[in-house]
Amino acid sequence: MKTSRFLLVALFAAKAQAFTVVLDYTYDSTGFFTSNLVAKAALEQAATDLSNLITSPLGAISPSSMSFTGNVSGTTATADWKLSFSNPTTAAAVELTSYSAAAGEFRVFVGMRSLSGSTLGQGGPAGMGLNFGGGGTESNWVAAVSAMNTASNAVMMRGGGPVIGNFSGNFTLGATDGAYSLNYGAIAGTLWFDNDADNNGSADGDLSTYWHFNHATGVGGGLNDFYSVALHEILHSMGFGTGATWDGNVSGASWLGTQAIAEHGTGANLIDTGSGAHIADNTMSLTLAGSLSQEVVMGPSIVTGTRKTLTELDAAFLQDLGYSVAAIPEPSTCALLFGAGVLGLAVWRRRAA
Ligand SMILES: [Zn+2]
Fold it and tell me: Under a CB-based contact definition with an 8 Å cutoff, are residues 72 and 147 in contact?
């Protein structure tokens, strides 16, 4: 029965992954990632590198109805969540009343869009909507709402990572207010890349003079590195730059989080005030893979012809957002670093990411 034992070992190894970015191509309705497997590989590599860095044990999202009820002697209060986001390809509103995730899984819905100006990509956490229901006797109402609140937060905060959003107020039965404060965490994200280099409002057929897709080769002069932008947008989808925990750590141009302050020496002028969602432009740190000086991944822009890999300061921000990170990055990041080289550093045209 030795083969069975090996199989079990493999299964346990797979389960030990605390955090896994799962890229979801459901909404790639133009088939971009089906036809461009080099671009898909770069995107998947960015997901793998972040999965290897982050060790937060995100809890499973279950049941898939995302419905949580407090029941006190037959008096019930129910919160029904729904996932709400923009279709990454068409921008149409998507609502999912049924959604589940395995332990550790963070799903990101991806696509391509026509983006105006110099924007290379956009990403963010999926939004959440909420409906309440319930009824019974007023004397049990406050306890029922409280039990509903506890049950919801136990699942929807996922036991780690940032608070993305909060709904708080009173759910009222008769003359009785039941106070609630419902948080949701890193449930899911969305991102999309620009497919309109000439900004004429429609997708370009040939993007090879705009994007550098291959993450295993140096970035060509004048091209925008797909891997770097993928890293950047996945991080946005995880709550880097948006969400309650991010907002709570930003005060004007200052970052208040202790880990990034310890890493950088100060939080003053560490935030890009133009967007409020990035580390300040031109902020340098050391790459996790090779301890080389490089502009952080989560600055507001990237220089054409260059690649960014994760830095110590990017990781420190992740810690301030509630993620735990591994001390030593995986070798795959290392290989990427050496692939990047210093190609095209003379090209200073900057593109927003
Ligand atoms: Zn950004």
Answer: yes
Instruction: Report the Cα–Cα distance between both ends of the chain, in Å, rounded.
Output: 53
pLDDT, tens digit (0-9, with 9 covering 90-100), for 252-265: 999 999 999 999 99
3-state helix, strand, coil in the chain (%, to 5): 30, 30, 45
Contact 320, 196 (CB under 8 A): no
Tens-place pLDDT, residues 179-213: 999 999 999 999 999 999 999 999 998 999 999 99
Task: Please give the distance, rounded to the nearest whole angstrom, from the Cα atom of residue 57 to the centre of ligand 1.
Answer: 25
CA–centroid distance, residue 119 to ligand 1 (Å): 9
Whether the bond between 63 and the residue before it is cis, its omega within 30 degrees of 0, is yes
Measured in Å, residue 165 CA sits from the centre of ligand 1 at: 19
Ligand 1 centroid from CA 91, angstroms: 18
Rounded Cα gap, residues 51 and 312, in angstroms: 16
